[in-house]
Amino acid sequence: MKKPTKAQKRGGKPKKHYKVRNWKEYNEALVNRGRIEFWITDEALRLWQEQKKTGKRGKPKLYSNLAIETALLLREVFHLPLRQVEGFLASILLKMGSVRKAPDYSTLSLRAGTLNVSVRVRTPRSEVLHIVVDSTGAKVYGEGEWKVRQHGWSKRRTWKKVHLGIDEATGDILLGEVTGNDIADCEMLEPLLTQVPTETRIDQVSADGAFDRRMCYDALRKRNVKHIAIPPQRGARIWQHGNTKEEKLPRDQNLRRIRTVGREKWKAESKYHRRSLAETTMFRLKTIFTDKVRARKGAVQRVELLLRAKALNLMTTLGMPESYIVA
Hints:
Elements: H1 6-9, E1 18-20, H2 23-32, H3 36-39, H4 42-46, H5 65-78, H6 82-95, H7 105-112, E2 129-141, H8 145-151, E3 158-167, E4 173-180, H9 189-193, E5 202-206, H10 214-222, E6 227-229, H11 250-261, H12 263-269, H13 276-289, H14 298-318, E7 323-325
Parallel strand pairs: 2-5, 5-6
Antiparallel strand pairs: 1-7, 2-3, 3-4
Helix pairs in contact: 5-6, 5-14, 6-7, 11-12
């Protein structure tokens, strides 16, 4: 007879165990993440230099934005300082037999803050979207965990916030923005939604209780979002009386349903549990790229963090694990 687990002794549910069904394909995808030809595409090589006729005054730049973005993607994926990126890329181009030159580290540093990074890499789906929204922190500078455990945080500990919107069906990061740690999560919902094309229909948005604000519901109403899975905070009150002739508020309907069936059942009905995808994505971002930012200028920090989101999207195109619960 098996001994009861700690969770069973406490009266909780036993921990679920998973196995990967497509391990062979997923293992190959993990290997392909390290292939240089995956990160330096034929399109990047073809458009390595900026086109002569840009429509702007002045001499065209030696390297296109795509070339600078490719070099900085290599930096994030392989965790290299800028000088090592220059040498690494130069040797790769030489091995490939290309006559193109690698941008030097000072060019990369100057051009990084001018890039306009789009985190989305796959063609948007024609189906309606279920977007999961969440935020996480990236440390600009500060002590390591050992020092924090021993002596606590110092006053110089500073963070950047990364706000992401994730496609519930594919796990792709569709929306991304970076702010200071003085910006609340709820303030960034409307700016994130503006990144979704107006012709794209958003069926549902799921977010945690930090987004239980009027500004968030107003932003979702403007985009005609049909289903809103934002749990009202405990002890919340109805905003609008039930007998009013005005349009019913989704937030009040959620609160009434929670009072009727309970919070756990409401989460299952509304597919709120799918919000865990956002937490999984945040974990993968920090595991692969660390939770620290190397740049010191705000514009470059933004590009650095958005490039990590784009690199993660590129990795998922190679293949993702298909797991199932072990009985």
